[in-house]
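ok trying this again, last paste got cut off
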Amino acid sequence: MIISKYEQILMTYALEIQRYLIKTGANPADAQDIVQDVLVKLIQADIVLASDKLRPWLYRVALSRFYDLYRREKRYRALLSEQFYLIYGNVVDLDDDRSWQLEKALQALTDYQLGLVTLYYEEDKSVKAISEIYQISEAKVKTDLYRLRQQLKQEMEQNDATR
């Protein structure tokens, strides 16, 4: 099999899997990360699968990653929710308008994102410690924190415009 044709087939399957994961319930950023992890795993495995076996293998690994992510978020859901409300129930450093915007923006976050906020900003955990807690790479934690800050900023600006 010609490598460039193999790469084209691989990219077609990767886009298909990403769309499937989004349709299944993953957010687009997580779907991209999962597909990237699957492709990295394929490269690290240093195997060339036949085209009839490639698609099922990619789906199986991607779904396994997605389920792991879902279980991890579910496992921390109760703990993070309790800590979040204990910590953010007493916001006193911000004026009322900014506090309202922050509270509204934080309500739009997923449990995983709330966990990142709590662990990084309130409990002063390092990126390495967070990566060990969630059993993910440090790069993913950094990327997710960056995306989270951008999302909070955008949400707060939107809330400010609608108020």
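PB: full thing came through this time. The mean pLDDT is 80.
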